[in-house]
Amino acid sequence: MKDRTEIGWLFAAPAALILSIVGLLPLITVVNYSFFEIFILDSRFWVGTEWYKDIIGSGSFWASFGRSTLFSALILTLQIPLGIAIALCIPKRKIWVGITLALVALPLLVPWNMIPALWLSLLNSESGILGRVLPNLGWPPDWKLSARHTWAVIIVMDVWHWTSLVVILCYSALTTIPAAYYQAAAIDGANPWQVFRHIQLPRLHHVLLMAILLRFMDSFMIYSEAFPINAGGPDRATTFLAVDLGEEIKAFNYGPSAARSVIYFLIVLTVAWVFSRAQGKLDREDQP
């Protein structure tokens, strides 16, 4: 067993080295910048924890934190059940499985920076399909002035883009269920809900934790998709944490933006640790 562990670390060493270069060194640099007032990179003045105190004591920070948390909660509430439902509906015949998965995965192939441009073009009142159809259903032409409608656009856009990831993860777990389980359920007269509750859902626990973690981290720090839609408006209604950070960087406020980055990193790291503990608990429960 010891020899296997040593060989495992040997194979993992190159990945750990690359990760330290592309991840750890920039993180150390950002943490260092967060304690300085930086006019230019060669002109820095020590301010200690001043930026952290300003950010934590700022009402706008907590408002953005609340919006980001609400957005992530809505995204998870929509995408996880929808992803499971679509995965369960994928055809069983092999020829249709590949076609269906390819179609479902298409949104994942669209680059992040093209997502808002695509949706804005669809919502264009002159040339967009949705822009011509939705007004007949009560959609206002000046929807960017409405926080409710702007939120709806960003949420639908994110659901369209990322639900495919949940579908693929769930389907991969469902394919590992032995056919004998379904045969036994059929003999016992189990209905579809009982099959899902007692056979399929237990197999989904691990991938669902992974899907929730991935989708939380991405949605909690959403920027490239959300900001081009309405620039954080109207009236800061869609100003999420990452949007605040982006504005600090654009203003060349390197010290405050570095402090924000560290705070956001700690938040995401804490959530990842909680999920890691939950995953470990599930692994222990699965052991005989």
Descriptive account of the structure:
The relative contact order is 0.12. Helix content is 73%, strand content 3%. The two termini are 20 Å apart. The protein has helices at 2-33, 50-56, 59-89, 94-105, 114-122, 129-133, 147-174, 179-187, 192-220, 227-230, 241-250, 254-286; strands spanning 36-40, 43-46. Helix 3 (59-89) runs antiparallel to helix 9 (192-220). The protein has 288 residues and is mostly helical. The model has no long low-confidence stretch (mean pLDDT 88). The protein has a two-stranded antiparallel ribbon with strand order 1-2.
In brief, what are we looking at here?
With 288 residues, this protein is mainly α. Helix content is 73%, strand content 3%.
Query: What is the alpha-carbon Rg in Å?
Result: 23 Å
Considering DSSP H and I runs of 4 or more, what fraction of the residues is helical?
Answer: over 70%
Give the helix tally. 12
**What is the string of SSEs from the N terminus onward?**
HEEHHHHHHHHHHH
Largest sheet: 2 strands, antiparallel
Strand content: under 5%
What oligomeric state do the depicted chains represent? single chain
Question: Low-confidence parts lasting 5 or more residues at pLDDT below 50?
Answer: none
Q: Order of strands side by side in the largest beta sheet?
A: 1-2
Task: Summarize this structure as a short list of keywords or feature phrases.
288 residues; mainly alpha; two-stranded antiparallel ribbon; 12 helices
